Amino acid sequence: MPIPLDVRKKPTSLKVHISTGAGVDITWADAHTSHYDFPYLRDSCPCAMCNDEREQKAKAGPAAKVSAVLPMYKPRVTAQAATPVGNYAIQIQFSDSHATGIFSFGHLREICPCEACAREFRNKSAEAAG
Ligand SMILES: [Zn+2]
Ligand SMILES: [Zn+2]
After folding, report:
1. Which ligand lies nearest the alpha carbon of 111?
2. Alpha helical stretches, state H, the chain
3. How far is ligand 1, taken at its centre, from the CA of residue 130, in Å?
4. What's the gap in Å between 29 CA and the centre of ligand 1?
5. CB of 107 closer than 8 Å to CB of 122
6. Dist. CA 125–CA 119, nearest whole Å
7. 67: CA distance to ligand 2 center in Å?
8. In this predicted model, what pLDDT tens digit does every residue of 76-124 receive, in sequence order?
9. Residue 50 and residue 34: Cα distance in Å, rounded?
10. What is the pTM for the complete model shown?
11. How far is the CA of 112 from the centre of ligand 2 (A)?
12. Which tens digits make up the pLDDT trace of 33-82?
């Protein structure tokens, strides 16, 4: 029997609500459920272009934020299509026509916006619970 994948990163159900624009719902093999808005996924897009963009912003540092103008109203990003990639990821085509982001299930679980996952995957310094 093959060694099972990390059950926390294995979806048992995945729904992409394209027509309603509600986002993505995933149920994981450990029975955890995650909900992602499309704008959140767009901001977390793992493609090289978006990675570069985020790095540039990080390099620019807080000074850039101070001089930045207030954000103009932007239409809410939704998705136009979602395509499975093998059995390990989904590719989402966003309404701003950005479609190069391939969201692996591991990445999706790590960016789950809930508090439990934030503690588990994104706060390595958190104290270990008994
Ligand atoms: Zn991207
Ligand atoms: Zn979660």
Report:
1. 2
2. 38-43, 48-67, 105-110, 115-122
3. 39
4. 27
5. no
6. 9
7. 35
8. 899 999 999 998 999 999 999 999 999 999 999 999 999 999 999 987 6
9. 23
10. 0.81
11. 5
12. 999 999 999 999 999 999 999 999 889 877 655 555 566 677 889 999 99
- Which residues lie near ion ligand 2 (Cβ < 5 Å)? 34, 112, 114, 117
Burial of residue 36 (CB within 10 Å: 0-12, 13-18, 19+) is buried
Nearest in space to 91 (alpha carbons), one of 71, 75, 107: 107
Task: List the structure tokens of 45.
Answer: 């897009």
CATH number of 7-54+77-122: 3.30.2020.30
At CA 89, angle to CA 85 and CA 93, rounded to 5? 70
Report domain extents, the chain: 7-54+77-122
Residues 6 or more apart in contact with residue 2 via CB below 8 angstroms? none
CA terminus-to-terminus distance, the chain: 32
Q: Find the ligand nearest to 100 CA.
A: 1
* Residue entry with tokens 């390099």: 59
